[in-house]
Amino acid sequence: MSASFLSIEKLTQEYPDGKGDNFTVFENASFGIEKGEFVCILGHSGCGKSTIMNILAGLAEPTRGVVKMDGVAVSGPSLDRGVVFQNYSLLPWLTALKNVTFGVAARFPDWTKKQVTDHAIKFLEKVGLTGDAIHRKPSQLSGGMRQRVSIARAFANEPKLLLLDEPFGALDALTRGTIQDELIKVWSGTDQTVFMITHDIDEAILLADRILLMTNGPLARVAESVEITIPRPRSRTDIVEHPNYYAIRNHLVHFLGQRSADMAGQPADGTTHSPKTVRIDTTTTTTDPSADHLRAVQ
Ligand SMILES: Nc1ncnc2c1ncn2[C@@H]1O[C@H](COP(=O)(O)OP(=O)(O)OP(=O)(O)O)[C@@H](O)[C@H]1O
């Protein structure tokens, strides 16, 4: 079996518990992500999603285990991995445009100033930012506009891997919906790989090829990988009409509502630490009525 583009191998994170001992946030988290995949991770607060993301970004080191991208162990941050946080993290003294050109110029040092600016403007346009807005500083933009700049900045740098930590967490539902569409627009047609943390089940179904489900911490693990068997392009209004939508949604709700707690602290079965692949497809015809809409493949 060929190795995945991104390979997370037996990651374990321990932290001091403040009483002179350690506690284990998650243990032996192992999974792979293929090039160009859009993967969301869902799990209750504290199970270790942000910790995993910081390790993938190279901003933190795990207690044990390794992350490999293109077969090379991740150590330290790199322009090959872009991160978008919930709180925008824009440079407040630069305009929206300069916030984007700043990274692009570093990423493509051979480009002329015009190439850098044109490239930045193209990505700002993709997220709906044009005209005067791109010459304003972050404090003069709305929260939604600031997050659009963050997304444009991350994609314009064309990293191999984009890490999104609840990028829409602080936005109202309407703005969130619009920017979800823009995110898909800017991602599709690229071969960029996206790993995104969200607490929103519907957002994850809309955006992801696959959703990873984590059990509750401490001793959390990545228990399932749920395939989103709904073809693209997807739209927020039409997706709910798809026959698989509620079957997938119910599975996720049930996992987060009950099984994530029931499975908490349990070690993985057998020797494999990989999540169980869950494929729910009500559109396939099968002669086995007990397996017609839920197939779990190890
Ligand atoms: N530097 C640290 N030192 C000690 N404990 C930490 C540290 N960073 C995180 N933790 C603990 O590790 C656990 C996982 O934290 P993490 O932020 O990764 O969870 P999360 O799943 O992203 O949560 P949320 O959804 O609330 O953002 C939590 O119990 C947290 O308190």
TrEMBL record:
**What would be an example GO MF term here?**
ATP binding
The primary location reported for this protein is membrane
Give the matching InterPro entries.
Answer: AAA+_ATPase, ABC_transporter-like_ATP-bd, ABC_transporter-like_CS, ABC_transporter_ATP-bind, NO3_transporter_ATP-bd-like, P-loop_NTPase
Name the segments for region: Disordered: 263-298
Task: Tell me if Cytoplasm is a UniProt keyword of this record.
Answer: no
What residues does the ABC transporter domain cover? 6-241
Membrane topology value: Peripheral membrane protein
One GO cellular component term of this record is: plasma membrane
Note whether Metal-binding occurs among the keywords. no
Question: Subcellular localization, per the record?
Answer: Cell membrane
Keywords linked to the UniProt accession? ATP-binding, Cell membrane, Membrane, Nucleotide-binding, Transport
Q: PANTHER family in the record, alphabetically?
A: NITRATE ABC TRANSPORTER ATP-BINDING PROTEIN, TAURINE IMPORT ATP-BINDING PROTEIN-RELATED
Similarity comment: family membership: Belongs to the ABC transporter superfamily.
Task: Report what the protein is called.
Answer: Nitrate/nitrite transport system ATP-binding protein
